[in-house]
């Protein structure tokens, strides 16, 4: 597993190109370790078209700017963080999005079909 150092934090990088070869077991073990010990990781060589990723990124950023940014800065979580306090809530719950056991993604205001 490669670790990318970003400022003072190292981020595990998983080489997904290795999942279809003789290093599959080793790569799966690295993935398990990153999930268990870090909770997140960066994926390299995942096979998703870069143009598609850029389109999705632009749509998400646009949706955030138009519909969520103001709400985010008014949230109790962000206000607490700007005051140097910590919060036990997770970011997803601050936007009232849930996916399990049922999703409310279709109920979110200003959520276009394309973004869904």
Can you put this structure into words, describing what you see?
The chain has two domains: 2-44, no CATH class; 50-107, no CATH class. 44% of the residues lie in helices and 13% in strands. It has four helices and three strands; from the N terminus they run E-E-H-E-H-H-H. It has helices at 24-38, 50-74, 76-82, 91-94, and strands at 2-6, 9-15, 42-44. The chain has a three-stranded mixed beta sheet with strand order 1-2-3, with helices on one face. The longest helix is centred in the middle third of the chain and has 25 residues, at 50-74. The two termini are 33 Å apart. One of its GO terms (molecular function) is metal ion binding. Residues 11-101 form the Non-haem dioxygenase N-terminal domain. Keywords: Iron, Metal-binding.
Order of helices and strands: EEHEHHH
Give the total of beta strands: 3
- Strand arrangement, largest sheet? 1-2-3
Helix coverage percent of residues? Answer: 40-55%
Give the number of domains: 2
**What is the structural class?**
alpha+beta
Residue windows where pLDDT falls under 50 for at least 5 positions: none
Terminal CA distance reads 33 Å
């Amino acid at each position: 597993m490669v670790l990318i150092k970003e400022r003072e934090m190292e981020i595990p990088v998983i080489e997904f190109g290795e999942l279809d070869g003789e290093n599959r077991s080793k790569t799966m073990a690295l993935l398990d370790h990153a999930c268990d010990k870090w909770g997140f990781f960066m994926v390299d060589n995942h096979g998703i078209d870069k143009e598609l990723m850029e389109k999705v990124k632009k749509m998400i950023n646009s949706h955030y700017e138009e519909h969520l940014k103001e709400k985010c800065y008014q949230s109790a979580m962000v206000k607490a963080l700007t005051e140097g306090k910590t919060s036990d809530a997770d970011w997803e719950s601050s936007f009232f999005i849930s996916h399990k056991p049922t999703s409310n993604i279709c109920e979110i205001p200003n959520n276009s079909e394309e973004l869904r």
